[in-house]
Write a structure and sequence with these properties.
With 391 residues, the protein is α/β, with parallel strands linked by helices. The chain has two domains: 150 residues, Rossmann fold (3-Layer(aba) Sandwich), CATH 3.40.50; 234 residues, NAD(P)-binding Rossmann-like Domain (Rossmann fold, 3-Layer(aba) Sandwich), CATH 3.40.50.720. 43% of the residues lie in helices and 11% in strands. The chain has a six-stranded mixed β-sheet. A four-stranded parallel β-sheet has the order 2-1-3-4, with helices on both faces. The longest helix has 20 residues. The termini are far apart.
Length: 391
């Protein structure tokens, strides 16, 4: 049976895959009076006296909203909030299974950034964090930036979850091929949410030393006159001499290829023009920029894709459960760049003996969640981005 058919049958039978489960039974009049009226009034009055007590008396401290407008769902594109719902519910399932976080799908019938920002701010009192999901670029940048000071962690997972896992994988990959990641030449294909975040994170990690060439569907990006504002901004950040041409020219002499773009745009011959011991991260889903086997045929030493049927699967589940678990545990008010770097380092270190076929953990080796969470929590405390104690 195909995964598609199996998934359709399951979802139709069970009407989705998540549900709310009560922590307590309501079997007697005493139970009803304790958990609802009149007993619950005492809890409400306690919180009303001091709002910060909501963290002690409710589930808020372990609750995350998974918010989308359905405009950039998986490889399906702009399919709308209704069709996005099963994907957001899947995200909620992963939050629970991997990090014991109670997450809820929130699918919005609007693509207006200002309206989405307003809704998220209004939702904040119910949640300990907000995971923005599958919102198309460049609107996702504006939305996330506007929500950084609402008192709870907000992260657009398509951007930063991907960037954290990619950086973790590259840290180990570079060590294996005996190269200094900060000095590598990198070609990045695709400047949507994920490609932009990966580029910024790698540039910050290398303190601007890494040579990064950006490519979109029209060719090498920086130096062109047809760029939108987000592409203009990222070209100001990276310190790379302008090249002319397309992906073929960008690959010549590159140490690393990072693809977050389109299927089958990279050939074995193009990989062969890269530097020795090349590293290829072809992460377009479900069909990568180049297949694992063709990348190896072209001479790539290490290959990663978004697929589970080949080694080195780059999957956001390696990042977001641990990042939010750590942020919630630390009572963080935001997720900072240093917290993301801490997450990437912890994830890389979760592989005890990296090899060419294992540069990042398997999603099912859940010990990495604890490692990432601990590192993120420690960094939040060190930076002081945590809620003050509630007397």
């Amino acid at each position: 049976m195909s995964y598609e058919k199996k998934s359709l049958e399951y979802h139709r039978k069970y009407k989705g895959k998540i549900e709310i489960v009560a922590k307590s039974k309501v079997e007697t009049p005493e139970d009803l009076s304790t958990f609802y009226t009149p007993g619950i009034a005492a809890v409400s009055k306690t919180i009303a006296e001091k709002k910060c007590r909501v963290w002690d008396y409710t589930m808020r401290g372990n609750a995350v909203a998974v918010v989308t407008d359905g405009s950039a769902v998986l490889g399906l594109g702009d399919i709308g909030p209704e069709a996005a719902h099963p994907v957001m519910a899947g995200k909620a399932l992963l939050f629970k299974e991997f990090a014991d976080i109670d997450a809820f799908p929130i699918c919005l019938d609007t693509k207006d950034p200002e309206e989405i920002i307003k809704i998220c701010k209004a939702l904040a009192p119910s949640f300990g964090g907000i995971n923005l999901e599958d919102i198309s670029a460049p609107r996702c940048f504006e939305i996330e930036n506007a929500l950084q000071d609402i008192g709870i962690p907000v992260m657009h997972d398509d951007q930063h979850g991907t960037a954290i896992v990619v950086l973790a994988g590259l840290i180990n990959a570079a060590k294996l091929v005996r190269k200094e990641l900060k000095n590598c030449k990198i070609a990045v294909s695709g400047l949507g949410a994920a490609g932009t975040a990966v580029t910024v994170m790698l540039n910050d990690y290398s303190e601007g030393k890494t040579g990064i060439t950006l490519v979109d569907s029209k060719g090498i990006v920086c130096g062109r006159n047809d760029l939108n504002q987000s592409k203009k901004e990222i070209c100001k950040i990276i310190q790379t001499k302008n090249k002319k041409g397309g992906l073929k020219e960008a690959l010549v002499g590159a140490d690393i290829f990072i693809g977050l773009s389109a299927p089958n745009i990279l050939t074995s011959k193009m990989v062969g023009t890269m530097n020795h011991d090349a590293i290829v991260f072809a992460m377009a889903n479900p069909v990568p920029e180049i297949s694992y086997n063709n990348a190896k045929k072209g001479g790539a030493k290490i290959v990663a894709t978004g697929r589970s049927d080949f080694p080195n699967q780059v999957n956001n589940v390696l990042a977001f459960p641990g990042v939010f678990r750590g942020a919630l545990d630390a009572k963080a008010t935001k997720i900072t760049e240093k917290m993301k770097f801490a997450a990437a380092g912890a994830l890389a270190n979760s592989v005890e003996n990296p090899n060419f076929n294992k540069i990042i953990p398997s999603p099912f080796d859940k010990t990495y969640v604890k490692n990432v969470a601990a590192a993120v929590a420690k960094e939040a405390v060190a930076e002081g981005v945590i809620r003050p104690k509630c007397d």
